[in-house]
């Protein structure tokens, strides 16, 4: 319910406004609940056709302020239901948020959050795999374990060992060299696509941050994920699906800023275009030695601050490129992280990333903690 207050604030609103963000049936339910609890009031907006004027009434038994006809006895008024959140409800939400912020934000990082808040007008969210976790999508290690086929027992043991060590490139290379099921990247990518599609739980009941991210209303989004979760949610609530972009189809970053269509840019490829997917070390070498990704990221980082969400910042290729660009263009970029030790915080600052550190007691709080930070940015 606190989501609604971000959308409509203390203004009069029509319920259609909420259809962007919530299912139609949920909107009805939530509005009824809010009225029942005394958190919201219902008004009737009437357009008097006799005098061509607009006013609000609390009841349809009222007389029109302009022509003096009783509203529900007259045929000269176009009436629409409108709502407004009560100040009592809004202050309850503010209190709840303050409480959450105290609970989840490490107080050492309040200053950093204030700096982030001053950048919201030019903020581009950079989405990592963490955001897809509630949708049951496997992380890299789990994904590689699922690709495990066609290896003899010794190779399989090596494969699993390398995955456990986090050496994903070498694991992939073992798979490609020794598995009788795979002879090329094309087949591996085809299987990755198939695994991600079948594991994806579209109607997850687990809380996630996708709507919170969309509510940032940034001009576009950048991700290294292959999946289309962000685009799907964006399309659902805006009623116009915009095709996600892979690097080779991206011509001009300035268009992204000026078109403001909230398109999703997939730096490492997209699940629906397997050939675009950056998987093996060779793919990474090719992508990061090409000037395209550099010029794109350069243009984005020159014009906006990035906010990394669900992104581990461990990808060496990306880290190097980010560092190089940042050396030329000094702008502040931010990352939301959890349970950081001061020494790790220093590491991030050394990499020119301003951390916003969350205190998380158990894994289930992660989504709410991120939501709490994003709510500060609307
Ligand atoms: Zn009237």
Automatic annotation (TrEMBL):
Pfam families: SIR2_2
SUPFAM superfamilies according to UniProt: DHS-like NAD/FAD-binding domain
Name of this chain's protein: SIR2-like protein
Source species of the chain: Oceanobacillus polygoni
């Amino acid at each position: 319910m606190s989501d609604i207050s971000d959308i409509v604030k203390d203004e009069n609103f029509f319920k259609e406004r909420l259809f962007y963000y919530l299912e139609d049936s949920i909107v009805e339910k939530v509005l009824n609940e809010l009225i029942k609890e005394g958190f919201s009031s219902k008004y009737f907006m009437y357009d008097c056709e006799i005098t061509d004027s607009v006013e609000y009434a609390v009841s349809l038994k009222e007389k029109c302020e302009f022509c003096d006809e009783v509203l529900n006895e007259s045929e000269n008024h176009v009436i629409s239901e409108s709502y407004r959140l009560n100040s009592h409800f809004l202050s309850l939400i503010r209190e709840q948020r303050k409480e959450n912020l105290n609970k989840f934000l490490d107080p050492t990082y309040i200053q950093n959050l204030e700096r982030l808040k001053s950048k919201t007008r030019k903020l581009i969210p950079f989405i990592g795999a963490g955001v897809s976790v509630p949708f049951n999508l496997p992380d890299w290690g789990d994904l590689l374990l699922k690709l495990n086929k066609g290896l003899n027992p010794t190779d399989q043991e090596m494969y699993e060992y390398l995955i456990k060590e986090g050496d994903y490139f070498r694991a992939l290379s073992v798979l490609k060299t020794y598995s009788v099921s795979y002879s090329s990247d094309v087949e591996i990518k085809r299987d990755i696509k198939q695994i991600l599609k079948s594991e994806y739980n579209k109607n997850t009941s687990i809380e996630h941050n996708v709507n919170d991210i969309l509510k940032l209303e940034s001009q576009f989004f950048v991700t290294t994920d292959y999946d289309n979760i962000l685009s799907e949610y964006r399309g659902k609530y805006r009623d116009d699906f915009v095709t996600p972009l892979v690097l080779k189809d991206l011509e001009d970053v300035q268009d992204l800023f000026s078109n403001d269509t909230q398109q999703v840019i997939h730096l490492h490829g997209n699940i629906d275009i397997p050939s675009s997917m950056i998987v093996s070390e060779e793919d990474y070498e090719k992508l990061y030695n090409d000037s395209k990704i550099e010029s794109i990221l350069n243009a984005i980082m020159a014009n906006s601050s990035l906010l990394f969400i669900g992104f581990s910042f461990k990808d060496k290729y990306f880290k190097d490129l980010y560092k190089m660009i940042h050396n030329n263009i000094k702008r502040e970029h931010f990352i939301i992280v959890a349970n950081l030790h001061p020494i790790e915080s220093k590491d991030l600052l050394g990499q020119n990333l301003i951390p916003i550190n969350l205190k998380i007691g158990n894994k289930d709080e992660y989504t709410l903690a991120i939501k709490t930070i994003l709510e500060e940015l609307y």
